[in-house]
Amino acid sequence: MDFSHILTDPYTIVLAGLMVVCLAFLSFYYGLFYLRVGRYKGPKKKKKQAPAPVTPPVSVILTAQNDAEWLRNNLVYLLEQDYPDFEVVVVNYMSNDDTQFVLKVLTDNYSQLKVVPLNENANGYLGKKYPMSMGITSAKNEYLLLADPECMPKDKTDFAWIRKMMSGYVAKDDQMVLGFCGIHYKKGLFNLLQQYDNLDYSTEYLGMALMGHPFTGNGRNLSYRRSFFMKKHGFIYHYRIPDGADDMFVNQNASRKNTRIMLDDGAFTMVEPQPSMHQWHNYRKHRVATHRYYTTGLKLARLLRPISVVLFYALAALLFVMGTVPWQILAAVVFLKLAWQIITVSASTAKLSMKPVVFWLSPLLEIYFLFANTILAISPLPKK
User: Fold this and answer.
1) Most exposed of 60, 154, 159, 379 (fewest Cβ within 10 Å)?
2) What number of other Cβ atoms are within 10 A of residue 189's Cβ?
């Protein structure tokens, strides 16, 4: 088979070269994020630094608004944690369902439960930053662990969630630990989409943290010190932005020196999947609503992957149509990309205890979310 014409046609050389560059970048990306998260062994102890307390007193913070059912089902798993000294602070924020009665019953049975009632929006700010700030102010302990009423620890048998998350603090100067929150698996395409979206989002922020550039976290499983929160003035710089209680605080204050991640299976939390496509779209929209406040460099860096994916497949299709590169070579290059992607994604799904079907279908799901995320970026936030 004669390939000499490939080296003499300038258009073919340029297009093939761009395709190879895209392949190299995507291979590097999959290895740096998916594989790195999948092979993560745990936080390393810093040299010449005093170790953090092994089991420091902890305050678990939740904000609830009309979450009676979630609290009734899930809060007991937090209150029963196997930990020597902790409290659970629940901010009941303007609820008009049975939340206060559920909390009253639980308070009568668990002395470590502290309820902070907020019956009005005193400052007029939207979102959960105000009630969360009240919960943090009311907490008595230095180490804070954030969750949501719909969360429960993944392992409901050994009650070691708090202990595992606190083991992420390995040095006295550590200020923040990023955790992972998974989605309960259910059969069906809709759940598969949510699983992959959560995997992709989580792998990105966890991988960036491992590279020394933490830029966001998940408020359903996140820890930081109370003194650090107060020193950085909490949410005061972005109070008027309804979203981003977790995202913007981490983005503005996390660094290579003060942030760790914890990916022990016992440190995971879980939530139920969104019940409808409309609710899931709104959840995702709120999740990315604050990304426009990121630095220009971070915005551009996060665009490199989707651009590379589009270019890779577009160039492969164009070269196939042109017929200047044998289809066998193009098929081999595409196969290498897909195989490496599946291998690396399988490592992260195993680490995060997700179903194998997610990594087998990851190439197709990646293409789907190229379009879905574009629609997400241009669609408006719900008014309510």
Assistant:
1) 379
2) 8
* Pairwise CA distance, residues 76 & 106, whole Å: 8
Looking at the structure, do residues 32 and 84 belong to the same domain, yes or no? no
Q: Is the pLDDT of residue 230 over 60?
A: yes
pLDDT tens for each residue of 347-372: 999 999 999 999 999 999 999 999 99
Domain boundary residue among 254, 284, 314? 284
pLDDT of residue 375: 84
pTM above 0.90, yes or no: yes
pLDDT band at 325 (very low <50, low <70, confident <90, very high): confident
The candidate with the shortest Cα–Cα distance to 281, out of 189, 373, 151, is 373
Average pLDDT of the segment spanning 32-42: 94
Residues 65 and 14 in one domain: no
Sheet holding 58-64, edge to edge: 113-118, 86-93, 58-64, 143-146, 222-225, 176-178, 259-261
Number of structural domains (the chain) is: 2
Give dist(CA 68, CA 72) in Å, integer.
6
Q: What tokens were used for 231?
A: 């020193």
Give the tokens for residue 136. Answer: 């943090």
Residue 293, classified by CB atoms within 10 Å of its CB into exposed (0-12), middle (13-18) or buried (19+), is middle
Residue 290 lies in a domain: no
Whether 3 has a pLDDT exceeding 60, the answer reads no
- Hey, what are 129's tokens? 């930053």
Whole-number pLDDT of residue 122: 65
Look at residues 264, 284, 304 and tell me which one is the last residue of a structural domain. Answer: 284
Task: Find out whether 376 and 288 touch, Cβ atoms under 8 Å.
Answer: yes
Can you tell me whether residue 146 is helix, strand or coil?
Answer: strand
By CB atoms closer than 10 A (0-12, 13-18, 19+), residue 111 is: exposed
Two tokens, residue 30: 């999959």
Q: How far apart are CA 58 and CA 83, in angstroms?
A: 9
The domain of 338 spans: 4-38+296-378
Q: Encoding tokens for residue 190?
A: 């809709």
Whether residue 261 contacts residue 209, with contact meaning beta carbons closer than 8 Å, is answered with yes
